[in-house]
């Protein structure tokens, strides 16, 4: 037993040549001198999906289990019966953004998905309930942000504001002085700029005429 | 009952004959008719309340139903059946616990991209959501582990839904699908015959690769000086073995496989370096470490293959062929992605290549590594019995194209390392999910998928075997000729190996010294059993077990101290594989 071999024969790990090269956490080969990790960026996806039960939970579940960071998600009908548009704001480093698009594209109810360009039209709606002690000042700031007063009473005032994310953030800051009691934000929804299609292959439909799917997905 | 069994085991020569197919009168008969239309010959399952209408419809069908002891067994059997046959396997279970018992098997199929259709009973539609008896949100539970699942709400469309689910399971990158069948859908009347089974419009994969991608890949391969082909399970799924071998041989490129890719290249071929990864061969891991061009086909770069991402094939430009675009650059960045069918992509790249890579020195180097890092375990002339010896003895005693199933753990690694596979669909194992207990039900599925003259062996571990041992009753009832070889080391051996290596030898909850006498247990089930303690007993026991026409169990009492090597520690570079414990 004493001379019995333990394990296998061959040069030990330290006796073997090892290449210098390395990859980063995304599996990309890197120059060790300029080693860096990709930065997160925020982007908007628009997807046309079959309007069937559970479609939203399939997308939300996929994002959760693959640890995709979804900032907001909105859903609504399109010009085509039986199709819905889902608009999603995500924040990830770049290879992750690519993964989100490809993994969502694989879901059976997803007809087509595309990432919006920077020039896309984006907007969000927010409802703000603030204290009613200073109605004139609340009204002035609401005007300043092209907002609308939906409900006003001696104790509270509720206003509606729309706009891009930055405008909404600024407005919310401006209203803080009145004491924000409640807030409800829809999250962004968006369409591509000009004649550009928001989602690849998307065609306007007429009632009861589903468009043909155009993407090749799993 | 015996009459029915006899009739259903007759070879089916009339499956295309409309008159032998189920007449559609209800949702349940539409389901069965859809299965018949799809060419399903065998299904695995367990009865229960909500699935009873489907079973009632199967009563008159030519589909052979194999009752399993546990739904998990049904899923694994269907999975393995599909792997061996190349068509989706089918399993059935009732609602609630029946469906949740399938979950491990569905997850297993999902991780290994095995085509499988699961049909589950569900409480009646009007009771869904009321926490009814044996109600579980089956589509909710299985959404993350299926390609897609369906809730069949209408008897008129349920046949088409089942057809679509079956087709989808085998389309593109295969995987499991599930149809949840509320009892009222199954029982309600309909005469709507299911139409042609086709995958949904939104799931049509790209088969022919993009020309520009092919050109770029061809150029990268031509200029490689140290190319390696990495064949994954996708080569098997795409039935691209012949094309893949032709490509390797014509261009004289060394081949490494993944575990699911075992058999895509004959392991005794000079070009084949066997499989890479945590317990892969030293030479495969050296080739991966030093290649300058890794041509990966149908693999998802699992962490057990890659080791640490940062040191995986660190010098290589990566050509990645896959039918699933989401696998491209998911784990390892693909410098040259080629999305498409594995066979078509390899053919297109071959046609686009103007010359083979010039790599005579590299091939020599790979052969040198084969000599430097031989798979030779300790000489088998001392007791105790070495598990590797048992695997080699079984391989030697069985025909070349024997189907081998396994559980998960040390025995699985030894089987994969020391059995020489020469064809795909012969190594049937749980790779991605690592499901202990897969081996026996998989052997049942494989046995029913294989031709009668083929041999099926299950190499199992003591702990794995205990997890699904109840399925032995099925093998006995169906008189299935399966030889089960337990490499019994009285431990969850892989855990024990890790405890010794990484937890200072604290063997918490790893010991199985209380496990039963498997030969007696086998006899109690009605199978044959042997116990083998020494080298001398090995040949006779194997010979007798193989000769016995029915399920046989050999309990090999092997060296409990034996470890699996080579071993790449989790997250370590593949090239730093340890050959013994002191190198970990």
TrEMBL record, chain A:
GO molecular function: acetolactate synthase activity; acetolactate synthase regulator activity
GO CC list: cytosol
Biased composition (Polar residues): 208-218
Segments for region (Disordered): 1-40, 191-218
Alphabetized UniProt keyword annotations: Amino-acid biosynthesis, Branched-chain amino acid biosynthesis, Transferase
GO term, biological process aspect, one: isoleucine biosynthetic process
Biased composition annotated in UniProt, kind: Basic and acidic residues: 13-23
UniProt pathway annotation: Amino-acid biosynthesis; L-isoleucine biosynthesis; L-isoleucine from 2-oxobutanoate: step 1/4; Amino-acid biosynthesis; L-valine biosynthesis; L-valine from pyruvate: step 1/4
InterPro entries associated with the record: Acetalactate_synth_ssu, Acetolactate_synth/TF_NikR_C, Acetolactate_synth_ssu_C, ACT-like_dom_sf, ACT_dom, AHAS_ACT, AHAS_small-like_ACT
Pfam families: ACT_AHAS_ss, ALS_ss_C
Domain ACT: 44-121
Enzyme Commission code: 2.2.1.6
Highest taxon listed in the record's lineage: Archaea
Recorded family membership: Belongs to the acetolactate synthase small subunit family.
Protein name: Acetolactate synthase small subunit
UniProt source species: Haloferax marinum
From TrEMBL, chain B:
EC number of this enzyme: 2.2.1.6
Keyword Magnesium attached: yes
Pathway: Amino-acid biosynthesis; L-valine biosynthesis; L-valine from pyruvate: step 1/4; Amino-acid biosynthesis; L-isoleucine biosynthesis; L-isoleucine from 2-oxobutanoate: step 1/4
Domain Thiamine pyrophosphate enzyme TPP-binding: 407-556
Region forming the signal peptide: none
Entry keyword annotation includes Kinase: no
InterPro entries: Acetolactate_synth_lsu, AHAS_TPP, DHS-like_NAD/FAD-binding_dom, THDP-binding, Thiamin_PyroP_enz_cen_dom, Thiamin_PyroP_enz_TPP-bd_dom, TPP_enz, TPP_enzyme_TPP-bd
Entries under CDD domains matching the protein: TPP_AHAS (cd02015), TPP_PYR_POX_like (cd07035)
PANTHER family named in the record: ACETOLACTATE SYNTHASE CATALYTIC SUBUNIT, MITOCHONDRIAL, THIAMINE PYROPHOSPHATE ENZYMES
Protein name: Acetolactate synthase
Species of provenance: Haloferax marinum
Gene encoding the protein: ilvB
